[in-house]
């Protein structure tokens, strides 16, 4: 098995019926790049920039951030790099940015909600990203978007900073894709509207599942309800992916589900374009995809969505299809 995986390191990800899928890696710091390149990632599907903030005793400066983003873009030699703007709050705290204690931090002031209020912090991050954009293929992604108004506000701030930099004579790439995480059910439900305005979606299943099932992703007592294979989740995913495709956009996934070997056949069947996961899951997933036929998986996904009533039934169906 190990020998087979080694051979897949430099191979593209191609299914049994010849369809190319993109297998990307999730990272938290530029130090993760070695593992990413050793495991044959075709890009970075999620760079969680909040670690830049969390591993520091004060707000990281524009230059500190620029260096980190540049290192990742250069380290990926022109392959796509999706950088997510900071997702602080929820379970992630900053000692130097005290946030009021909340009853429900996962439903509170976090991520883009903070960025749109503390817009000085947000603008600093965007300027660093825009300056780094000339060193590779940058894609910018906003976390925890619930409404179109939030996306439009964030995009407008990005455009303002871009115009300012260009005015200052700084070079900025002109092909930066701008997308959103789909991790709040409200955004998933109107994905057809978002698809007209964004360049891509990346589904954050870690949060999307907890919010859809109303089951805290950290709470053992309700973990039985945290069901990636529940037909409700699969239906949402189908709507998100179909909506992206209807507007000629791509849909990826950067939550844990993307690297889950039971979920992968279903996601292939739903037409997901990009799968981003921890680097160590890439080769086994490439090996699995190579053995699967997308039209057969489409039939599987269709049955899972229409004929199965429960998550257990979906798992049984996948096991029947993937022997
Ligand atoms: C997610 O919610 O699925 C995700 C990728 O983001 P995080 O795990 O950082 O919340
Ligand atoms: Mg999330």
UniProtKB/TrEMBL annotation:
PEP-utilising enzyme C-terminal domain span = 2-293
Where is Mg(2+) bound in this sequence?
A: 183, 207
The residues annotated as the active site are 254
Q: What is its EC number?
A: 2.7.3.9
Keyword Transmembrane annotated: no
Cellular component aspect of the GO annotation: cytoplasm
The protein's superkingdom reads Bacteria
GO molecular function annotations of the record: kinase activity; metal ion binding; phosphoenolpyruvate-protein phosphotransferase activity
Tell me the GO BP annotations in alphabetical order: phosphoenolpyruvate-dependent sugar phosphotransferase system
- Where, per UniProt, does this protein localize? Cytoplasm
In the record, which residues are listed under signal peptide?
none
Annotated residues that bind phosphoenolpyruvate are located at 48, 84, 206-207, 217
Q: Which reaction does it catalyse?
A: L-histidyl-[protein] + phosphoenolpyruvate = N(pros)-phospho-L-histidyl-[protein] + pyruvate
Which cofactors go with this protein? Mg(2+)
Q: Which UniProt keywords apply?
A: Coiled coil, Cytoplasm, Kinase, Magnesium, Metal-binding, Phosphotransferase system, Pyruvate, Sugar transport, Transferase, Transport
Role summary? General (non sugar-specific) component of the phosphoenolpyruvate-dependent sugar phosphotransferase system (sugar PTS). This major carbohydrate active-transport system catalyzes the phosphorylation of incoming sugar substrates concomitantly with their translocation across the cell membrane. Enzyme I transfers the phosphoryl group from phosphoenolpyruvate (PEP) to the phosphoryl carrier protein (HPr).
User: Into which family does the record put it?
Assistant: Belongs to the PEP-utilizing enzyme family.
This chain belongs to the protein called: Phosphoenolpyruvate-protein phosphotransferase
Organism equals: Vagococcus elongatus
């Amino acid at each position: 098995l190990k020998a087979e995986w080694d051979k897949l390191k430099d191979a593209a990800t191609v299914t049994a019926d010849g369809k190319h899928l993109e297998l990307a890696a999730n990272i938290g710091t530029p130090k993760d790049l070695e593992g990413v390149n050793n495991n044959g990632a075709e890009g970075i599907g999620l760079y969680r920039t909040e670690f830049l903030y969390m591993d520091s005793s004060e707000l990281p400066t524009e230059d500190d951030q620029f260096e980190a983003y540049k290192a990742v873009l250069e380290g990926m030699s022109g392959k796509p790099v999706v950088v997510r703007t900071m997702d602080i709050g929820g379970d992630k705290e900053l000692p130097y940015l005290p946030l009021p204690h909340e009853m429900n931090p996962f439903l509170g002031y976090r991520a883009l909600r903070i960025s749109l209020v503390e817009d000085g912090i947000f603008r600093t991050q965007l300027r660093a990203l825009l300056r780094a954009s000339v060193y590779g293929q940058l894609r910018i992604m906003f976390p925890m978007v619930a409404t179109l108004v939030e996306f439009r506000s964030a995009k407008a701030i990005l455009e303002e900073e871009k115009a300012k930099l260009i005015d200052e004579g700084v070079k900025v790439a002109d092909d930066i894709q701008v997308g959103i995480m789909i991790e709040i059910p409200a955004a998933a439900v109107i994905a057809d509207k978002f698809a007209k305005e964004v360049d891509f979606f990346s589904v954050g299943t870690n949060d999307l599942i907890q919010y859809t099932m109303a089951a805290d992703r950290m709470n053992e007592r309700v973990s039985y309800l945290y069901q990636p294979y529940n037909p409700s989740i699969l239906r949402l995913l189908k709507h998100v992916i179909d909506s992206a495709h209807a507007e000629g956009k791509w849909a990826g996934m950067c939550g844990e589900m993307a690297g889950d070997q039971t979920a992968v056949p279903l996601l292939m069947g739903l037409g997901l374009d990009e799968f981003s996961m921890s680097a160590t899951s890439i080769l086994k997933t490439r090996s699995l995809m190579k053995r699967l036929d997308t039209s057969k998986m489409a039939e599987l996904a269709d049955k899972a969505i229409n004929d199965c009533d429960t998550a257990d039934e979906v798992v049984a169906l996948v096991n029947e299809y993937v022997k």
